[in-house]
């Protein structure tokens, strides 16, 4: 099992939704669609590594999609 680095901060859905300027419900929908940042259920709660959320946001800008 891979240990979480001690400096790694884990975020809740509400915190990630705020970073993405989405509602928690919208973020849950993104999770269902598979379009959200990587996450895991830990003790029954959806958690995100802060570094992975930041990396995911950067990847969206680098993706060069129709609006990028």
Description:
There is one protein chain. The chain is α+β, with helices and mostly antiparallel strands and 68 residues long. It is built from 3 helices and 3 strands. It has a 3-stranded antiparallel beta sheet. α1 (13-20) packs across α2 (24-33). The longest helix is centred in the C-terminal third of the chain and has 13 residues, at 50-62. The radius of gyration is 13 Å and the shape is globular. The mean pLDDT is 90.
Explain the layout of strands and helices.
Elements: E1 10-12, H1 13-20, H2 24-33, E2 40-42, E3 45-49, H3 50-62
Antiparallel strand pairs: 1-3, 2-3
Helix pairs in contact: 1-2
Characteristic terms for this protein:
alpha+beta, 3 helices, three-stranded antiparallel sheet, 68 residues
The SSE string, one letter per element, is EHHEEH
Report the strand count: 3
Mean pLDDT: 90
Helix content: 40-55%
Protein structure class: alpha+beta
Q: Low-confidence runs (pLDDT<50, min 5 residues)?
A: none
Oligomeric state, counting identical vs distinct chains: single chain
Describe the global form. Answer: globular
Largest sheet: 3 strands, antiparallel
Strand content: 15-25%
Rg (CA only):
13 Å
Short description:
By secondary structure, the protein is α+β, with helices and mostly antiparallel strands. The chain contains 3 helices and 3 strands. The protein has helices spanning 13-20, 24-33, 50-62; strands at 10-12, 40-42, 45-49.
